[in-house]
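B., you asked whether I could sanity-check this one before it goes into the benchmark set. Here's the sequence:
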Amino acid sequence: MFETPFSVVGTVVTDPIKRRVNDQDFTRFRVASNSRRRTPEGTWETGTTLFLSVNCWGKVAEGVVGVLYKGDPVVVVGHIYTDEYEDKEGIRRSSVEVRAFAVGPDLSRCRAKLEKSRPAAEPASPAGSDGDEGPDRTEASDELPISA
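And here's what the prediction gave me:
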């Protein structure tokens, strides 16, 4: 299957919905991206709006839930495709969707605090060490303040 790489900067317009599909986490939400252009007078004019459904799987799906909400500014990177379906009245329809492999806040329009995820267990210290294992990495703060 041919996959078209795609990135979009926009605003979350529906709260993410998490589901479980077989053994994987799946999260879906919609994004609106507005175009703007500068007029000859130097003011900004709003253009058309692109609405996309964003599908997230696995770790991306886990990372989105509880972090992004309706109204949040986001950057989505993934592959774009058209989903064709038949509606309840039997009319053939299509929608533009993105299978995201990265989703994050748009730091030009918000502030964020990062929390890095760590593996559940740290590897054991090598044999023959003096017993001093150093600082406990699981308790160290992984939060990094970021400001736009």
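One thing to flag: The beta strands are 4-12, 17-21, 24-38, 44-57, 73-86, 92-105, 112-115, 143-146. Otherwise nothing jumped out at me.
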